[in-house]
Amino acid sequence: MMRGIRGAVTVEENTAEAIRQATRQLLDALTERNALRTEDIVSVFFTVTADLDAEPPARGAREMGWTLVPMFCVQEMAAQNGLPRCIRALIHVNTDKTQQDVKHVYLGEAVKLRPDLAQGGR
């Protein structure tokens, strides 16, 4: 069965290193909380806010060894009062976990996006 796992993280500044570091932090947390193995990852969709253009987040994932995982990076829609400097991820994984067992991760200011999940929800 395939499931989607969501996560988001905010970035302190629009630099290549800050984007790679935040991406690695998010993916490390998602991997740990969900006991993911890279061979079970089907694909990853990243979105970034328009104020983050120094580096695509997929580069940070590749540095972690996710070289065979298909990844796609796009710009997040410009929503009124949207959260600035934010990277969002949707990871598709092959897993036996139920939707209730999947652990979504929101780090930094991104906890504002889903406080129900970030504060020890699922």
Write a structural description:
The model has no long low-confidence stretch (mean pLDDT 94). Helix 1 (16-34) crosses helix 2. Helix content is 25%, strand content 28%. The protein has a single domain (2-111), classed as RutC-like (60s Ribosomal Protein L30, Chain: A), CATH 3.30.1330.40. Strands 3-2-4-1-5 form a five-stranded mixed beta sheet. The relative contact order is 0.30. The two termini are 19 Å apart. The chain is an alpha/beta fold and 122 residues long.
Short summary:
This protein has helices at residues 16-34, 57-63, 115-118; strands at residues 2-10, 41-48, 71-75, 86-94, 105-107.
CATH homologous superfamily title: RutC-like
Give the biggest sheet: 5 strands, mixed
Helix and strand composition category: alpha/beta
Over the alpha carbons, how many angstroms does the gyration radius reach?
A: 14 Å
Distance between the termini: 19 Å
Mean pLDDT: 94
Topology:
Blueprint: E1 2-10, H1 16-34, E2 41-48, H2 57-63, E3 71-75, E4 86-94, E5 105-107, H3 115-118
Parallel strand pairs: 1-5, 2-3
Antiparallel strand pairs: 1-4, 2-4
Helix pairs in contact: 1-2
Task: Throw out a few tags for this protein.
122 residues, alpha/beta, 60s Ribosomal Protein L30, Chain: A, five-stranded mixed beta sheet, 3 helices, 25% helix, globular
